[in-house]
Every structure is written in structure tokens, then in C-alpha cells.
Write a structure and sequence with these properties.
The structure holds two protein chains of two kinds.
Chain A lengths: L2 E8 L3 H8 L2 H4 L6 E6 L4 E10 L2 E15 L3 E8 L4 E12 L4 E12 L4 H27 L10 H25 L1
Antiparallel strand pairs in A: 1-7, 2-3, 3-4, 4-5, 5-6, 6-7
Chain B lengths: L11 E8 L3 H12 L4 E4 L7 H4 L5 E2 L15 H12 L5 H21 L4 E3 L18 E4 L2 E2 L22 H9 L6 H9 L2 E2 L1 H15 L3 E3 L2 E9 L2 E9 L2 E13 L8 H7 L6 E2 L8 H8 L4 E2 L4 E7 L5 E2 L2 E2 L2 E2 L2 H4 L3 E4 L13 H8 L2 E2 L4 E2 L4 E5 L1 H6 L17 E2 L2 H8 L3 H17 L11 H6 L17 E13 L2 E2 L6 E3 L5 E7 L17 H21 L3
Parallel strand pairs in B: 1-2, 1-11, 2-8, 11-26, 12-23
Antiparallel strand pairs in B: 3-5, 4-5, 6-7, 9-10, 10-11, 13-24, 14-17, 14-23, 15-16, 18-21, 19-20, 21-23, 22-23, 25-26
The chains are: A alpha+beta, B alpha+beta.
Chain lengths: 180, 548
């Protein structure tokens, strides 16, 4: 089951970001592979997205239902494929940062292809889905803050930091255990 | 056209220049190298592998040493009898004998000297009831390959839009007949292990063989024009980075850049019917054919192509082109028939795709039309509950691109099939199913179609069409390549219109006049021939470079 997320910090207050995020029409066209969307009512909409499974791109239609609405803080939704056996859920969540001057925008999605070949397709879909979460959040950030710069971390630094984190966690966990 | 060049204008000098990086091209490059030649490969696209990379990667090799692994046996006489029957007098006996005598030698050589590895496969020949045919063993499946072994070249392997999941040949057919029995967990693990199968495995292994030999591989280098001096081909002009690059090839130029299926003008000029889509790379525009004709090559087998009944899922694309999907299980499994616009069945739906193309291209002189194009697969809910339709699995929702109606009459009216014709045909078909015999086309009586069928069903290929809803999938003629091109002799040398050798020019694979004529020997028949001629051309061009 591919689970992906991406977070960006925008130098705008949360209220400003919420004004943009609360209206789906503002950010729907920013989604990776966006073809079109149609608002059915306050909670439901129909989306058409072109996504990649390995070397193939396919057009998928989704029925999206808003399942969670936290005024000023975020929105959660469920999705179901209309022409593909795919279900999932996702959210855009906003958290204050830098004492309220900035907002942390987090996009997350959990998708699952069904059917007998579901596990195979799920595996192949992960790279596109990861890129999709990254692209949507980054584009929202750029729309609200045109000078937004995506943090760049060379892979070896990321890997080094992750390794250091694991080492420290291991170290502290061991000290805690030994202290008991 | 005499195309002279002062020697100082050569940008590169090698013994052998190979145009194209599919199975034929890479085999030619390896054999030329191993016979002492300095080799360069010119590949038009930014990916290695050509049509082979997007294929199943199987090779059809009579007398191969893997046959004993599954208890199969073969003789030269049987193989020749079978090949001659299928070539139908449109290929010379000499060429067919060369193929039968060389293909297994080529395979043994590659397995001994390169990473290429094959395994025996229980797939029957395409016409197992013909004299000399075999029920299994001549088609071989490439062993899977860890792409990471290619290092920085791994991303240069052309991905296959159809066979990008690492599965064996048997599993790919199981995906049609028993999709729920596929070893899905094992397949996911193979993907996690970075394994590729099918054409990617074969090309990956050949490419590794080239890299181990430090063979020069030039990407985005399109061969455009042969250079001749004193009537002999001495090199080639390629285009790379917007500039002309002149490559001198002392031993010769091997044309192995595929067919002309993506060139609409050439298709219209030579093929007997339309091709609506192709599954091969869209770079196959007949470059080799044009270059060879320009220096006076004779051409042959031009009306033949590897044509299959195909369809597309609307909106599905790869490399900017619609994905052409092969209709295989849909026409072989129970509860399906194929009809034309008159509502008539016109062929045994279960026969191999190459032979079916002859029926698809049936021209009706009375109505002056292609009588069987387009045509439709008609299936009922019994089929839908058990088997996939292209990408739609039995438990998937009905897609909006697949016409569906509660009655056959409504379905016929919707897609444009004669309603009465379809009703009559289905009634007749259901009678055949009850009787257990297709009296019109003998569907389900051949070894090949029974192998492709559902062994767990009451009959592997026959089933009534009676329970709604009913579905109609439009079928058109698609292609994986063309079979026509410059004629060659048994050494792979291109011949001119008077039958004389054009010195320094070779052709292999879909770029050459196909040795199988109108026929298709079995799974991997295309690549088996292509690699055999690549093997022959590589050796001969290397010898020629040394003055042989």
C-alpha cells in the first residue's frame, strides 16, 4: 500500500495558507498529472488524473469525498477510482511555524490498487506518488510565496543525517534500557 | 550514387559499424569484437535495446541444447521441413538451412562467452500440427537479469510498456487464463530485487556483454547515409548532436535498426493492409531500408509484417505514444468470439497472431473493403467473471471505454455490427460449444491454442456466449515490426538488384528481408532469426576487416 507524504514550510501565516487551501479549485490544477476536476457539491468532486505505473501513463478518474474539515488546520479526503480498482485517502495539513510567521504544509496520501495484480501495481506506483506529493506541496508553496525555494539536500547529506539519527536513537534507547 | 569522401574527413575509424542496438545489433557487435574487430554501435534513440527490449525476449532456436531439459528432441530434417513449410516458398532454402544450422551455434556461443542465459520453455511451436513442428522446446525464455549489473547504463535500457513486470513466459500466459493464480508475492519480490525479465533481460545481458568488451556505444546517433567508395560501402554518415559524424568502417556496416512500421508512407506503399498502432519504439521509420535502397540494394518480403490483433486503452501512453496491447487471452479463452462488422466469425480465434493477420487483411472484392477490419471480440459475463480484458481484471470495475449492453442486439447496434448477423453467429457458436466442436474453424483442436487456453475450464477454448451483460472490444491490426528490407545472402551481405554482393554492407533483424517469408515459426521467431543474422554478420564483417 503506497503511503507518501511531503512537507514544505512557507513564509506565510497559516490563515493566508488556509484561505488558499480551503478552496479545492485553487490547488487542484497544481496536482501532478491533473487533467480536470468537477465539483459535485461541498463534499464531493470528480477528478481526472494522468499517472504513471512504470513506463506507462494512464488516465484515472476518481471520486473524491471530503471526510475531515478542520477550519484553518487542514482537510482530509477519501478517494475511489471510477475506472480503476484503486482506493485511498489523503490530507493537506497546516501547522504554524516560526512563531506564526510561517506555515508548515504537509501533503499525505495512502493509496491502494485492488484486484489480483494490486500488490504488483502498488509497488510500481510508489515513485510517481512520491513525486506527486512533493510536486503538489511545492507548487502550493510557490503559488503563495513566489520566492519559495525548495530545500536542497544532497543525497549523501540526507543519508548521513538519517544515519546519525538512527545512531543517536539507538544510543539513547540503549542508555534508557541500561538505566532501568 | 557514388558517394566519395576524402579519408581526412572521417570523424571515427573502426572495423565494423553496427546501426541499431536491438538483439541483432548487439549480437553483431559482440561477434565482430570477438573476431578481432574494433566496433562502434550507433543507436538513434537515447535508449539501448530497440524492438527486442520491448518484446518478450524469447528466441526460437531449433536444435538448441536446452531442449533436453524438458525432454524435447529435435532433428535438422524436422526443423527444416517445418521452416520451409511456413516460409511457403518465399524464402530460399539456402537461407533457411543457414538459419537452422547456425541458430543453435549462436545460442551456445553467447551462453559460453557472454552473460546471455536462456532456459527451456514448454511453449509449442506456432503451428504444432505441421510437419516437423514440436510441441515444446524450441522457444526459449531469457533468464531474469539484475539491472544494477549495468551500473550507469542501467537507465539506458529501453523500458517495455507491456512487459515491465518481471515474469516468465508461462506466467505471462497464466495472467490471461488464471490471473488469480499468479505468484504475485514472488513477482513483487523480484521487482524489489531489481530484476527485469523478457526483452529487458535479454538486452540487459547483451549490453553487459558489450560493456565487458568496451564496445563503443553511441546514443542519439542516427545512421543517415551510407558512404561508398569504388562501389563498396566504406562507412556511414550519422547525425549526432545536430552534426554529421562520418564513421569509416573497414569491414563493413551492419544495418540492424529495425523495420519501417512507424513510417506511414512506407507502410502505405508496401503493406497489404492498415496498421493502426505498433508496440515497437517509434524510431523504427525504415532508416536501414532507405539507406540500403539508396546504394542499390534489392529488397524483399516487403508485404509482410509481424501483425497482431490489438487494441488500446484510451488515455494509456508510453514514450508519448498510445500503448498497443496484444489481444491474446481474449480470443483464446472460453466465452469469446471474434466477429467482423457483418457479425460473422472469420477465423479460428485461437491461432497464432501472425497467421491471424492473413485473415484480418482479407480484402472483399465484392464490397471493395477490408472485410474483417475492424473486428470485435464479443464476450459475455461468464468471460468477464473469469478472465482479463486487456488491463481490466475480473474483479475490476467495468471501464467506460469497453462497450457493454444487457443484450447482444443492443451491443451490436451500439458498436456498428450487423444485429441479425451477430445473433445468428452466436446461436451457431453456442451450438458448437454444446457439441464440443467448432465446425466452422476448428477452434480448440490445436495444441497451441489449447496450451494458451484455460486448462481448468470444461473446455480450454470453448464456452457459450449467453449470459448478459455482453461486451464488445474493437480490434485492429497492430504491429511489432515489419519483415521486409534489403535482401541478403547466407553471410548477411546485402545484395543488389542483379544478385551481386554490395561490398561492405550487411543487414540483420527486422531491417532485412525476412528469412521466414510470410511465416512465424514460434514464440521468439523474430529475435531468433535476428540474433542469428547478427551473429553471421558480425563474424563476416570482422573477417572482411582483416582482409578475409
Amino acid at each position: 500500500m503506497p503511503k507518501v507524504d511531503y512537507t514544505a514550510t512557507i513564509e506565510r501565516p497559516r490563515a493566508v495558507v488556509w484561505e488558499f487551501v480551503k478552496d479545492m479549485n485553487n490547488w487542484a490544477p497544481l496536482a501532478k498529472g491533473y487533467q480536470e476536476h468537477e465539483v459535485v457539491n461541498d463534499r464531493e468532486s470528480l477528478w481526472t488524473i494522468k499517472g504513471d505505473i512504470g513506463p506507462i501513463s494512464r488516465v484515472t478518474k476518481f471520486h473524491v469525498t471530503i471526510t475531515e474539515w478542520l477550519e484553518g488546520e487542514g482537510v482530509g479526503f477519501a478517494l475511489k477510482g471510477l475506472n480503476e480498482s484503486i482506493t485511498g485517502e489523503g490530507a493537506i495539513r497546516l501547522n504554524e511555524a516560526a512563531g506564526g510567521a510561517s506555515t508548515e504544509v504537509r501533503g499525505e496520501a495512502l493509496l491502494e490498487f485492488g484486484g489480483s495484480l494490486g500488490p504488483v501495481i502498488n509497488h510500481m506506483f510508489v515513485p510517481w506518488a512520491k513525486q506527486g506529493a512533493d510536486e503538489l506541496v511545492t507548487k502550493i508553496a510557490l503559488t503563495l510565496q513566489p520566492d519559495y525555494q525548495k530545500p536542497k539536500q544532497p543525497f549523501f547529506i540526507t543519508a548521513w543525517l538519517q544515519g546519525l539519527g538512527r545512531f543517536l536513537k539507538h544510543l539513547f534507547t540503549r542508555q534508557e534500557n541500561e538505566g532501568r | 550514387m557514388e558517394n566519395r569522401l576524402p579519408s581526412q574527413r572521417w570523424d571515427k575509424e573502426v572495423d565494423v559499424a553496427v546501426v541499431g542496438s536491438g538483439g541483432a545489433g548487439l549480437t553483431a557487435a559482440i561477434l565482430a569484437h570477438d573476431n578481432g574487430a574494433n566496433v562502434t554501435v550507433l543507436e538513434r534513440s537515447d535508449k539501448i535495446g530497440g524492438t527486442t527490449a520491448v518484446s518478450g525476449g524469447g528466441i526460437w532456436v531449433p536444435l538448441n541444447h536446452h531442449m533436453s531439459e524438458i525432454g524435447a528432441q529435435d532433428t535438422r530434417e524436422e526443423a527444416l521441413a517445418y521452416c520451409k513449410k511456413l516460409a511457403a516458398g518465399r524464402s530460399s532454402d539456402e537461407l533457411l538451412e543457414t538459419f537452422v544450422d547456425t541458430a543453435h551455434v549462436m545460442l551456445s556461443y553467447l551462453e559460453e562467452h557472454t552473460p546471455v542465459r536462456y532456459r527451456a520453455c514448454p511453449m509449442p511451436d506456432y503451428r504444432p500440427e505441421d510437419p516437423g513442428a514440436k510441441p515444446a522446446g524450441r522457444t526459449l525464455d531469457p533468464e531474469m537479469f539484475a539491472k544494477a549489473e549495468l551500473g550507469e547504463w542501467a537507465d539506458r535500457l529501453r523500458p517495455s510498456p507491456l512487459l515491465f513486470v518481471p515474469i516468465k513466459i508461462e506466467e505471462s500466459f497464466m495472467a490471461f487464463s488464471q490471473p488469480k493464480n499468479l505468484p504475485v508475492g514472488e513477482i513483487v519480490q523480484r521487482m524489489k530485487d531489481g530484476l527485469v525479465a523478457s526483452g529487458n533481460a535479454l538486452i540487459g545481458r547483451l549490453l553487459k556483454g558489450c560493456l565487458e568488451r568496451n564496445i563503443d556505444l553511441q546514443l542519439e546517433a542516427r545512421g543517415r547515409e551510407l558512404v561508398r567508395e569504388d562501389g563498396r560501402v566504406t562507412g556511414i554518415r550519422a547525425e549526432q548532436d545536430g552534426k554529421d559524424v562520418f564513421v569509416r568502417a573497414r569491414g563493413g556496416v551492419v544495418l540492424a535498426s529495425g523495420g519501417f512500421e512507424w513510417n506511414a508512407a512506407l507502410r502505405d506503399r508496401f503493406l497489404p493492409g492498415p496498421i493502426s498502432h505498433s508496440c515497437s519504439p517509434h524510431y523504427n521509420e525504415g532508416d536501414a531500408l532507405i539507406m540500403a535502397q539508396e546504394v542499390g540494394a534489392d529488397i524483399g518480403n516487403m508485404t509482410e509484417a509481424w501483425v497482431y490483433p490489438g487494441a488500446c486503452v484510451p488515455g494509456e501512453e508510453s514514450d508519448g505514444q498510445p500503448v498497443s496491447r496484444w489481444i491474446v487471452g481474449e480470443r483464446t479463452l472460453p466465452h469469446s468470439i471474434m466477429v467482423n462488422r457483418h457479425g460473422e466469425r472469420f477465423v479460428n480465434e485461437g491461432i497464432n497472431y501472425n497467421d491471424m493477420s492473413k485473415a484480418l487483411y482479407n480484402f472483399d472484392p465484392g464490397n471493395y473493403e477490408m472485410r474483417n477490419l475492424p473486428c470485435w471480440m464479443i464476450v459475455d459475463s461468464q468471460y468477464r467473471e473469469h478472465y482479463p480484458i486487456m488491463t481490466v481484471m475480473p474483479d475490476d470495475p467495468d471501464p467506460d471505454w469497453l462497450p457493454k449492453e444487457e443484450t447482444l442486439a443492443a451491443l451490436a447496434a451500439r458498436v456498428g455490427i450487423n444485429t441479425e448477423g451477430l445473433a445468428t453467429t452466436v446461436e451457431r457458436w453456442n451450438g458448437f460449444v454444446v457439441a464440443g466442436k467448432d465446425r466452422d474453424f476448428s477452434r480448440g483442436e490445436g495444441t497451441y491454442e489449447r496450451w494458451m487456453g484455460d486448462a481448468t475450464a470444461p473446455h480450454p477454448n470453448l464456452g457459450t456466449i449467453e449470459r448478459g451483460p455482453f461486451y464488445a472490444l474493437q480490434i485492429d491490426a497492430h504491429s511489432s515490426g515489419t519483415k521486409g528490407g534489403p535482401r541478403t545472402n547466407t553471410r548477411g551481405q546485402v545484395l543488389d538488384v542483379r544478385g551481386n554482393v554490395i561490398g561492405g554492407l550487411y543487414a540483420a533483424g527486422n531491417a532485412m528481408a525476412g528469412v521466414s517469408g510470410p511465416g512465424y515459426f514460434g514464440g521468439g521467431g523474430t529475435i531468433g532469426l535476428a540474433m542469428t543474422w547478427g551473429y553471421i554478420c558480425g563474424i563476416d564483417a570482422a573477417k572482411r576487416a582483416k582482409g578475409g
